[in-house]
Amino acid sequence: MKNLFIALALLFSIQLVAQPKEVTDALKALEKAKKESADAKKAANPATWLKLADAYTLIYDAPIKSLWLGASRLELKVLLKDQRIISTETKKIMDQPFSVDIYEDKELYYAQDGTLASWIVTKPYYEGNPLGDAFTALNKAAEVDTKAIKTKEISEQLVALKSRYQNIAMSAYALGDYKKATDNFALSLQASSHNLVKQVDTVIMYYTGLTANMSKDYNRAIEYFNKAIENGYDAKGDAYSYLAEAYKGIKDIDKAKETLSAGFTKYPTNQSILVSLINIFLESNDDPNKILNLIKKAQENEPSNASLYYAEGNVWKNLKEVDKAIACYNKSVEIDPKYYFGTFAVGAAYYDRAVEIQTKASEEVDDTKYEALVKQLEQNLESAIKPFETCFETSTDEEVKAVVAEYLKNIYFRFREKNETFKAGYEKYNKFLEAKKQ
To answer: 429 and which of 115, 297, 345, 409 could share a cystine (Cβ 3.0–4.6 Å)?
Structure first.
C-alpha cells in the first residue's frame, strides 16, 4: 500500500510538471520549421519563414494563452480551469497591493478592482527570445517574397507582434519595471514601422519616452518624445514638459528652456508647462519676466484671447503675486464673460489666500493680531462668493459646477449664522451636491 501511494504521488507530480500537449506540439512544429528554413530550396519560399515565425509566437503564447490585461479574476479562473493555482499571495509593489495567483509556469497579478494588471512567466518553454526570432523570420519572409505574394500575411503577423510587445510593455509598467516597458514599447514601434506595415504610432512613441523618463534613461526619452512631437502628437502640451524634464536630466538647461518656451507658445494655458517654465527660470536664477514677455507677445497677437490673460494670471499666482493674478483673471472674464475658467480662478485665488491666512491665524498667540487675521480671512472668503457664483451659472461642465458648489457650500457654511442669505446659500449648494451623489 505504501509503495502504491508513493507511485501515485510520483505520477501526480510528474503530471503537474509535464509540458502541456499544445506546448509539445508547438516545440515539434518549431523544430520542423527550423529544419525547413535551413533547407536552401525551402528557404527561398516566404511561406517557410512565415511558418517559422508562427511557430515562435506559438511557443511565446503557450504560458499566457487565454490571458488579456483587464480580464476579471473569475473569467481567467474559468478559462484556466485545467491549470492548478499552487498558491495565492498578496504582494505590494510601488505601494500598490496585488493579489497574485501562482501557477506552475506563471504568476498572475490582479489589481484591487480584481482585474488582471500584469503577468510574469516563471517557466518559459523556450530558452531564448521567441518574439525577436519571430521578427527576424518575418523580415526574412519579406526579403524572399520578391513577388509580394505573402505581403498581407507578413504584415498581419507584424501587427500581431506589435500588439504582443505592447502587452508586455503594459504588464511591465504595472509592476514598475519601466526599463522593460520602454524596451517593449520600442520593439512595438519597430514592428509597426516595418516597410510592410508603415503605421506611425505616435501614442506609443509618447509612452516610450514617458517610461524611459521614469527609468531615468533620459537620452532615450528625448529621442522618443521628439519623434512623437515631430509626428504631430504632444499630449496637448505635456510632451513638451516631459521632454524638458529629460533635457534637465542630462543637464542641458538651455534646451529644456527652449523646449518649454516652444510648448508654452503653442499651449499657453497648459499648467504643467507653465509651472515647469517658472521653476526652471527660478532654479537657474534667470528672470521670470521672460515668461511674462512670452505671454505679452502672445496677447499682442491675440488681444481678444481670454485664455492668454488667464495664463498670465497663473504666472503671477505662482510667483505669489495674488492681486496681480486676480486682475488678470478678471481681465480674461472682461474679454469673454462666458470664460468660466477666469471666474473660477478669481474665486479660487481669494479662497486659497483665505486658507493661508487661516493657517497663520491658527499659529498666532496675540489676540489682537489673531482677530485682524480672522477679519482678513472672512473678507477673502466673501470676495470669493461672487466669482464662484458666476462660474457656477456660466459653466457647462458638470464637474466644474460640482467643484464650485463644494467651495460655495464651505463658504456659506461658515457664514450661515450671520443671516438668512448665507443660510439659504448653504442649503442650495448642499442640496445640489447631495443630488449629485444619487
So the answer is: 409
What is the chain's mean pLDDT, rounded? 90
- Which amino acid is located at 294 in the chain? L
- Tell me which residue of 137, 155, 147 sits closest to 38, measured CA to CA: 137
DSSP codes of every residue in 144-196: H-TT-SSHHHHHHHHHHHHHHHHHHHHHHHHTT-HHHHHHHHHHHHHHHTSTT
Output the pLDDT for position 436. 84
Q: How far is CA 347 from CA 237, 380, 424, in A?
A: 26, 9, 20
Q: What gap in Å lies between CA 13 and CA 113, rounded to an integer?
A: 34
Q: Which helix (H) or strand (E) holds 56?
A: helix 46-61
Residue 66 within a domain: no
Residue 207 lies inside a defined structural domain of this protein? no
* Residues 177, 251: Cα–Cα separation, whole Å: 25
- Reduced to 3 states (helix: H, G, I; strand: E, B; else coil), residue 62 is helix
Instruction: Tell me how many domains the chain contains.
Output: 1
Strand, helix or coil for residue 110? strand
- Is pTM beyond 0.85? Reply is no
Rounded (5°) CA angle 104-173-232:
140
Instruction: Evaluate whether 189 touches 161 at the Cβ level (below 8 Å).
Output: no
pLDDT cut 70: percent of the chain above it:
95
Asked whether residue 30 is assigned to any structural domain, the reply reads no
Helix (H) or strand (E) holding 345: helix 340-363
Rg (alpha carbons) of the chain, rounded to whole number: 31
Give the Cα separation of 245 and 389 in Å (integer): 38
pLDDT per residue over 300-355, tens digit each?
878 898 988 998 998 899 888 999 999 999 999 999 999 999 999 999 999 999 99
Determine the Cα angle at 88 with ends 85 and 92, to 5°: 140
- Give the position of cell 504610432: 201
Domain that holds residue 346: 337-438
Short-list 74, 60, 49, 50, CA closest to 22? 60
The C-alpha cell of 139 is what? 523580415
Residue 65 lies in a domain: no
Rounded distance, CA 317 to CA 313, Å? 6
Check if the beta carbon of residue 328 is closer than 8 Å to that of residue 310.
yes
pLDDT digits (tens, 9 = 90+) for 46-75: 999 999 999 999 999 989 988 999 999 999
Other Cβ atoms closer than 10 A to 256: 25
